[in-house]
């Protein structure tokens, strides 16, 4: 990423972030970055240098021990397997919201193709990638470190995001319409990959339903018509990995994330005040609870802070499928999760409102849901 041409920029703080800015001189105009060159430079632009309290520290190499959940055992219907799996998952979700799934049923060739297509896409020239440029306020398209979106604490990554829903061939058509017939293969691979992710998410929703005592179909039915986001994360090498972050500390605003990281590693989770690493396991998917599911569980399951660090030697990649409900479905915990002992923690909301909040008004961090609840009260008189 090297300074190429001026683009517009957006002020960091917004009326909703609670960090009202007094009149400040406009920051210098930001530039478009091209990963090919900046990844070799020692003097990285100041916009990529994160505050001291966020910088990665070497002591985060300690592993976060995560249970390897055997999904096939749960789906077998064997009562003991179902009970064991749902208990292990429930304990993890109450603690930090992360676990890993094996025997997930996702075809290994499809997974390999998804990684190969990601390599091909991000090795294209910036000009070619910008044919899928993500527009301000939109959640789909190509972004190079969000230069047009944030003015500081820029993530050291390029991303390609696109939506998945039940409408037939929606991913396949996205690639065809956005990038043309030469990308038919990409569209086919990611259409099948997203279908596999959606199936996996619905099966995991059965586990979560059993673990919270509302039955296999409780949450599965809620997400049957999901309108989700697929995100390809591409982290070029960085000569100052101690100064920047691939993805900054955040909680996913979505419902459930199914992540497959490549062999490089870099995913870290904040638990008990310490950053701990989740090492890559090619046969497993990392699964984490997002803010929307934390609200659906009435705060029982945790959406936790995590981040991605980079390194000097190797490009790192991750495939992240973000399960989201239909846009206008009301996010409200099932009755069985609300009682005198467990009063409502968050107000009713729709995913479309939370998505708009994260795309247009607030940069997802560790208090997105609280800030969102405040924004809802300020902007929607029914609250
Ligand atoms: C709804 C979303 C917004 C982000 C992509 C999905 C779920 C995770 C969100 C994100 C990764 C959280 C950290 C900040 C962010 C800006 C990023 O680094 O990409 C977030 C995504 C986004 O707003 O594009
Ligand atoms: O790349 C990773 O390992 C994590 C990325 C992430 O947390 C995200 O995209 O929400
Ligand atoms: Fe995340």
Automatic annotation (TrEMBL):
It comes from the Eukaryota. Pfam families: 2OG-FeII_Oxy, DIOX_N. Its cofactor is L-ascorbate. Keywords: Iron, Metal-binding, Oxidoreductase. GO terms for biological process: gibberellin metabolic process. It catalyses: gibberellin A53 + 2 2-oxoglutarate + 3 O2 + H(+) = gibberellin A20 + 2 succinate + 3 CO2 + 2 H2O; gibberellin A12 + 2 2-oxoglutarate + 3 O2 + H(+) = gibberellin A9 + 2 succinate + 3 CO2 + 2 H2O. Residues 225-325 form the Fe2OG dioxygenase domain. GO terms for molecular function: metal ion binding; oxidoreductase activity. Gene3D superfamilies: B-lactam Antibiotic, Isopenicillin N Synthase, Chain. Transmembrane segments: none annotated. Belongs to the iron/ascorbate-dependent oxidoreductase family. This is Fe2OG dioxygenase domain-containing protein. The lineage of its organism: Eukaryota, Viridiplantae, Streptophyta, Embryophyta, Tracheophyta.
């Amino acid at each position: 990423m090297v300074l190429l041409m001026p683009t517009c920029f957006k002020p960091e703080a917004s009326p909703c972030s609670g960090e009202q800015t007094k009149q400040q001189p406009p920051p210098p105009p930001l530039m478009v970055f091209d990963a090919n060159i900046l990844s070799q430079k020692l003097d990285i632009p100041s916009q990529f240098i994160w505050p001291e309290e966020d910088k990665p520290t070497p002591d985060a190499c300690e592993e976060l021990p995560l249970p390897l959940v055997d999904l096939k055992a749960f789906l077998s219907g064997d009562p003991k397997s179902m009970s064991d799996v749902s208990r292990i998952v429930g304990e993890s979700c109450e603690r930090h919201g992360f676990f890993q799934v094996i025997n997930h049923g996702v075809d290994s060739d499809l997974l390999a193709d998804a990684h190969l297509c990601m390599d091909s896409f991000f090795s294209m020239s910036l000009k070619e990638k910008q044919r899928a440029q993500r527009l301000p306020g939109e959640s789909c398209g190509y972004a190079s470190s969000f230069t047009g979106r944030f003015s500081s604490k820029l993530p050291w990554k390029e991303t390609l995001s696109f939506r998945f829903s039940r409408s037939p061939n929606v991913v396949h058509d996205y690639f065809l319409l956005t990038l043309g017939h030469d990308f038919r293969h990409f569209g086919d691979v990611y259409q099948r990959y997203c279908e596999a992710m959606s199936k996996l998410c619905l099966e995991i929703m059965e586990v979560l339903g059993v673990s919270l005592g509302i039955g296999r179909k409780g949450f599965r039915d809620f997400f049957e018509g999901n309108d989700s986001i697929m995100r390809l994360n591409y982290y070029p090498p960085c000569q100052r990995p101690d100064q920047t972050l691939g993805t900054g500390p955040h909680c996913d605003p979505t419902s459930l994330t199914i992540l497959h990281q490549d062999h490089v590693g870099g995913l870290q989770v904040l638990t008990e005040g310490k950053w701990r690493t989740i090492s890559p396991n090619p046969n497993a998917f990392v699964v984490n609870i997002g803010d929307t599911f934390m609200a659906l569980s009435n705060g029982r399951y945790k959406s936790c802070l995590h981040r991605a660090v980079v390194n000097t030697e190797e490009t790192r990649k991750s495939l992240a499928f973000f399960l989201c409900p239909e846009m206008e479905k009301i996010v409200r915990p099932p009755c069985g999760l609300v009682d005198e002992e467990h009063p409502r923690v968050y107000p009713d909301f729709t995913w479309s409102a939370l998505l708009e909040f994260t795309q247009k008004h607030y940069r997802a961090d560790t208090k997105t849901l609280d800030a969102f609840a405040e924004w809802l009260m300020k902007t929607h008189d029914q609250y």
